[in-house]
Amino acid sequence: MSKILAIDDDSIIRTLISGSLSSAGYEVITASDGESGLIKAETEKPDIIITDYQMPGISGLDVLTELKKAMPGIPVIVLTAFGDVPLTIKSIQMGAYDYIEKPIQMPELLEIIKNGLEVSLQSQTLSEIITPEIRKAIESNLLVGKAPSMREIFKNIGRISINKVNVLITGETGTGKELIAKLIHFSGKTREHPLVLVNCSAINQRLIEEDLFGYEAGASPNASTGKTGKFELAQEGTIFLDNISDLDEAMQTRLLRVIQDMEFEKPGAQQPVPLKARIISSTSKNLEKLVKEGKFREELYYRLKVFTITMPPLRSRKDDIDELVRHLMQKLNQKMNKKILKVGNGVIDKLKAHSWPGNVRELENVLLQAMIMTRSDVLEKENIIISPHMQSETVDEQTVLVPISVIEKNHIQKVLDKLNWNKLEASRVLEITRPTLNAKILRYGLKSTNPRKRKNIKK
User: Fold this and answer.
1) Per-position b or e across 395-433, b if 16+ CB within 10 A of its CB
2) What DSSP element (H or E) covers 31?
3) Which of 16, 66, 175, 237 can bridge 171 by disulfide, Cβ–Cβ 3.0-4.6 Å?
4) Does residue 130 surpass a pLDDT of 70?
5) Residues 328 and 286 occupy one common structural domain
6) 213 with 231, same domain?
């Protein structure tokens, strides 16, 4: 019979765990605080340990730290009613087998215990905890969510951030793939090293090679000075290749060779330059399909996806919208120097009724526009404006049958009309440059919906 130690200062929780696990056939011993829990762990030699996080005296993470020193092979499950992203990541980094929030769902706990007893999680412990500066950087990313899919992602980040394996992040546009890359970088062993971001679709394919790998002075008749490429700039940190699926065939072949050899040729250099950085890549396209179609190299695909994280669309985790709204409003209040502190009746229900084909990015833009129009400290339902063509009670879980270009075109039109075609303000709201906005207006043939205002449009 497996022996389980449950440490929690709440007697009701201890009774619940003890009764349920005993009925499941386990021998259960309990402790009411961290100090007595550590003593019982040493004397009783349990097979698995469950510890609360928030306890008087020694906290659950302190207990976890001591247990990992004294009994590194024993799985430890952390319980807390105060779950957040940094705590999830920290507990996994420090060696927790798993993390579960209160109120406890007993089937979930029993499954975790069963798995924990079958395998011994091989966790590494960081030499130092996340600094306040890094914690602030992580929290500013606004990666929140209590949906099971997001909780599992946060746990996996805790595991992979202490290693330098290559990671492929997939998911629809606007789900936060870049934020996940930043979270991986700043949460683990690469956090003190550079993070270099590269948008593979935004770089001229003819120039991407020199942008990534650089060149020495004299490498060509026009190279009077050298250039340090992105791979070299990343040093022992992280290089994030966003939209990796947009690389042409030649660059795919070059990148594959770099990953295989762990070094790259720099034009004009006498020796190859070693590759020291971790590669995190992302795509909103189906790479497996592109591989089958011969548009993406299979060998490169498997080299990039040593570990894969798939970001869920917002429509599949609508219960997170309430928390996302609070975090996004805090961010936007600081950005716009506003103090909109309350959410009016019906706002969350209206937001949850939308399918969000643009995901969290679309949610942020909708809130931004609403907050611009708000004249009090309350975000009212009337200020939430979602284009009619984008409203839907149901949505195909596999795909949203609206091209991204249509979403972008209508969203830009909506922002411009809302701001009376003030392009300076619209550029700030859309977070793009004025030339980029002008180019998109020309591309989509956008015009003011108010003919009398067309003559007064600010250039």
Assistant:
1) beeeebebeeeebbbbbbbbbbbbbebebebbbebbeee
2) strand 27-31
3) 175
4) no
5) no
6) yes
Residue 56: CB atoms within 10 A of its CB come to: 9
Encode pLDDT of 21-41 as tens digits.
999 999 999 999 999 999 999
* Confidence bin at 55 (pLDDT 50/70/90): confident
285 burial type by CB count under 10 A (0-12 exposed, 13-18 middle, 19+ buried): middle
* Statement to judge: residues 141 and 222 lie in one domain: yes
State the burial class of residue 78 (Cβ atoms within 10 Å of its Cβ: 0-12, 13-18, 19+).
Answer: buried
- Structural domain for 94, as ranges: 3-118
Q: Are residues 305 and 318 in the same domain?
A: no
Is residue 138 located within the same domain as residue 107? Answer: no
Q: Global pTM?
A: 0.57
Residues 134-181 have pLDDT tens digits of 445 444 555 667 788 888 888 888 888 888 899 999 999 988 898 899
What is the distance in angstroms between the CA of the first residue and the CA of the last residue of the chain? 76
Do 154 and 274 have their domain in common? yes
Strands 227-228 and 214-215: antiparallel
User: What's the rounded Cα separation, in Å, for the pair 123 and 94?
Assistant: 8
Q: Are 296 and 287 contacting, i.e. CB atoms less than 8 angstroms apart?
A: yes
Q: What is the DSSP string of 288-337?
A: HHHHHTTSS-HHHHHHH-SEEEEPPPGGG-GGGHHHHHHHHHHHHHHHHT
| Angstrom distance (rounded) from CA 157 to CA 180 | 8
